[in-house]
Every structure is written in structure tokens, then in C-alpha cells.
TrEMBL record:
PANTHER family from the UniProt entry: GEO12064P1 (PTHR36692:SF2), PROTEIN SNAKESKIN (PTHR36692)
Keywords for the protein's UniProt record, in alphabetical order: Membrane, Transmembrane, Transmembrane helix
GO CC terms in record: plasma membrane
Record's keyword annotation contains Cell inner membrane: no
Species of the source: Drosophila rubida
GO terms, biological process: septate junction assembly
Name recorded for this polypeptide: Uncharacterized protein
Segments passing through the bilayer: 12-31, 37-62, 74-95, 107-129
Source species, domain of life: Eukaryota
Length: 132
């Protein structure tokens, strides 16, 4: 695989991570009635923090043509995987026995999207590790 193919694939993955993070944050705004304050703090911090991290990786790698080191990228990807999956699980746990309302549906969609984004961060870490 050439450097251009790798760079293009990783840009697509980073763009998907950013898109899912923004979608989670928007859904979090519309379903912010979480029962547990720690779940709210963790979800808000994860969603906003990783929007900042992924935009920073884009700014460094694409705009300034100074790609971030492989170890740092793997660290952020593994940490993002853990935080997004944990946020999704905690949100599901906080909302699973609630009455069926629009807010509950949005919260469960947010949790599912968060877990999917966590899996995407995990794949990003694996792909980055395997690249030479």
C-alpha cells in the first residue's frame, strides 16, 4: 500500500470519527436529561474532547502537512475507543428502564452511535499500528 492510499484511508476514518462525534454531541444536546451526573460528565467530556482532538489531528496532518506521530495517534485512538464505548454503555444503563419517550429514543441512539464510534476508534488504532 502506497503512502497516498494510507493517507487517504486514514483521512476518511478520521472524518468518520469526527462526524460521529459531532452527531453524538448534537444528540447529547437534545437528550441531556441523563439520570446520573457522572454519565453526563463523561459523555459531554468525551464528545467535546474528541471533537477537539480529531480537529487537531486534521489541522496538524492535513492543513499544516505535519503528520502526528504514530504512537500519539494510537494512544488517542485507544483512549477514544475506551471512552466512547464506556460512555455508550453508561448512557444505555442510565436510560434502559425509562418510559418510552422521544428523549429516551434520542439517548439510546446517542449511546449506540457512541459505541459504533468507539469501535471505529479501535479499528483506527489497529490500522495505524499495522501500517509501516
Amino acid at each position: 500500500m502506497s503512502h497516498g492510499e494510507r493517507k487517504g484511508r486514514l483521512n476518511v476514518v478520521k472524518f468518520l470519527e469526527l462526524t460521529f462525534s459531532v452527531a453524538c454531541l448534537v444528540l447529547h444536546f437534545y437528550s441531556f436529561n441523563d439520570r446520573d451526573i457522572m454519565t453526563s460528565f463523561m459523555a459531554t467530556g468525551t464528545f467535546t474532547g474528541y471533537i477537539i482532538v480529531v480537529v487537531g489531528v486534521f489541522a496538524a496532518g492535513v492543513l499544516m502537512r505535519a503528520p502526528i506521530h504514530k504512537r500519539i495517534d494510537i494512544f488517542f485512538s485507544v483512549l477514544g475507543c475506551a471512552l466512547f464505548v464506556a460512555s455508550g454503555v453508561f448512557i444505555i444503563e442510565a436510560w434502559e428502564f425509562s418510559f418510552r419517550t422521544r428523549t429516551r429514543d434520542l439517548a439510546l441512539i446517542k449511546a449506540s452511535l457512541s459505541i459504533v464510534n468507539g469501535v471505529l476508534f479501535g479499528f483506527d488504532a489497529i490500522f495505524t499500528f499495522r501500517d509501516k
